[in-house]
Specification:
It is a single chain. The protein is of the alpha+beta class. Helices cover 50% and strands 11% of the residues. Strands 2-1-3-4 form a 4-stranded mixed sheet, with helices on one face. The longest helix has 19 residues.
Amino acid sequence: MTRPWILPMSLMVCGAPVATALVIKGAAGAAVAVLLVFVLLAWLHSPLAFPPSTGAVEARRRSALDGRPIVYWRAGCKYCLRLRIRLGRSARRMHWVDIWRDPAGAAAVREANDGDETVPTVVVAGRPHVNPDPGWVRGQLPPSL
């Protein structure tokens, strides 16, 4: 599936010529800085910045067993990125489902949002919450063992 990689690759394709132009002008330091910014933005908007995804069916099964929330997300979504960054290490204690990789996950999000694929959609105890506050989501985590 290439869809999650379109934005990160576009950022890299745009950053390389800008950095090259700066090198040609003799501003190597500025070129390195610009290239690093583009690489950082590409990484943040890629699936690599998120915990490993699982399928929606498996996430529901695991959530029923351990009580952890399910986060439906997609790469390139600034609200998903905001949630991921603000959760910090707590993000790994949730079940993440990439709706661009899992059709069942996309269907679950559409069902919860009247046909829209609005993410992040966080399911806690079977109830969906669209773009919730990260502090609230952190509060929904079961105590760690």
